[in-house]
Amino acid sequence: MQFSTLALAALASLASAQTVHVVKVGVNNSLTYEPSDLTAAVGDMVQFQFFSGNHTATQSTFDKPCSPISQNSNITGFHSGFIPAAASEAMGMRAVYSIMINNTQPLWIYCAKGNHCESGMAMVINKPAANPNRTLAAYKELAKGATTELPTGGATGGTPGQTDATNGTSDGGAADTGAQGAGAGMLVAPSTVLLAAAGFAALLL
Ligand SMILES: *[C@@H]1O[C@H](CO)[C@@H](O)[C@H](O)[C@H]1NC(C)=O
Ligand SMILES: *[C@@H]1O[C@H](CO)[C@@H](O)[C@H](O)[C@H]1NC(C)=O
Ligand SMILES: *[C@@H]1O[C@H](CO)[C@@H](O)[C@H](O)[C@H]1NC(C)=O
Ligand SMILES: *[C@@H]1O[C@H](CO)[C@@H](O)[C@H](O)[C@H]1NC(C)=O
Ligand SMILES: *[C@@H]1O[C@H](CO)[C@@H](O)[C@H](O)[C@H]1NC(C)=O
Ligand SMILES: *[C@@H]1O[C@H](CO)[C@@H](O)[C@H](O)[C@H]1NC(C)=O
Ligand SMILES: [Cu+2]
User: Fold this and answer.
1) CB 3.0 to 4.6 Å from 110: which of 4, 51, 74, 117, for a disulfide?
2) What is the best residue among 58, 79, 99 to mutate for testing ligand 5's pocket, by most ligand atoms within 8 Å of CB?
3) Which of 25, 27, 28 most suits a substitution to test ligand 1, by most atoms within 8 Å of the C-beta?
4) pTM of the predicted protein model
5) If you measure from the C-alpha of residue 111 to the centroid of ligand 2, how many angstroms do you get, rounded to a whole number?
6) Which pLDDT value is given to residue 9?
7) CB burial class (10 A; 0-12, 13-18, 19+) of residue 105?
8) What is the pLDDT of residue 182?
9) Is 2 in the pocket of ligand 6 (CB under 6 A)?
10) Tens of pLDDT along 136-167?
11) CB-hemisphere CA count at 13 Å for 200?
12) Rounded CA gap, 85 and 178, in Å?
């Protein structure tokens, strides 16, 4: 009984030790997400940072790239809305949009601006291992022949915010990572927290 209480406390600590994966959008005026092929665990955050232009991060199905997932499945999915980098840049900030990874289902993502998606502005989080045909390259190939569609309801499913353009402090989402420039920022190693919790449990038992 006491142990399970402690186990719960350990889990609670774990929940606060959050990994944030940074995806740079439109670096150097490119039509890219970087990285475009990302693996993220349940409970991780993915923070899109908008470096240039006016882009979105919008979820689709694999089969219908450039089209919101809500139109092709019963999943609502996420859509950042259009995020112009210049507006934040003018204030020395960088616009960000953060999503929570709730499961390890593949997340196929496109930009809903103009023909960016058809031009290959697309990425995947947790590409499926079970179906080797469903690759990012195959998704982009399908996108070439697609027509971009916008979700009807506006931005949904994530948290917009700003991060300091130079030092990585931020508000909005779980963006407070200092992970700028790195592929991912680990605030506290989960194993450290587990060990600490285990030590604590040993003391009390
Ligand atoms: C943008 O391109 C320049 C020149 O190729 C390069 O030096 C710079 O590192 C790039 N910036 C980013 C953020 O990748
Ligand atoms: C961004 O793109 C959207 C869709 O094309 C447009 O409605 C919006 O005005 C654009 N914003 C800026 C600041 O260019
Ligand atoms: C959503 O769609 C999936 C796959 O088509 C189906 O298995 C599931 O039962 C549906 N869920 C709801 C709530 O309709
Ligand atoms: C992958 O594609 C090949 C060739 O089209 C097909 O024979 C195979 O069944 C596909 N695999 C899956 C898991 O869909
Ligand atoms: C995870 O769940 C939250 C809360 O339901 C939701 O807002 C968010 O969009 C989900 N994340 C993804 C990637 O769907
Ligand atoms: C980062 O920038 C913010 C806003 O300019 C500032 O308040 C903060 O002190 C800076 N943090 C560091 C570690 O430099
Ligand atoms: Cu775009």
Assistant:
1) 117
2) 99
3) 28
4) 0.77
5) 13
6) 59
7) exposed
8) 30
9) no
10) 999 999 999 999 999 988 999 999 999 988 64
11) 16
12) 19
CA distances from 118 to 31, 32, 173, 192 (A): 11, 12, 29, 44
| Amino acid, res. 83 | I
Burial track 52-68 (b if 16+ CB lie within 10 A, e otherwise): bbbbbbbbbbbebbbbb
Contacts of residue 128, defined as CB under 8 A and 6 or more positions apart, other chains included, come to 106, 134
List CB contacts of 109: < 8 A, sequence separation 6 or more: 33, 57, 58, 59, 60, 122, 123, 124, 125
Q: Is 133 in the pocket of ligand 4 (CB under 6 A)?
A: yes
User: Above 60 in pLDDT, residue 41?
Assistant: yes
Rounded to whole angstroms, the Cα distance separating 181 from 88 reads 18
With a cut of 70, say whether residue 180 has pLDDT above it. no
- Expressed in angstroms and rounded, the spacing between residue 82 Cα and the centre of ligand 2 is 6
Average pLDDT, the chain: 82
173 alpha carbon, distance to own chain's centre: 11
What digits encode the pLDDT tens for the residues 99-145? 999 999 999 999 999 999 999 999 999 999 989 999 999 999 999 99
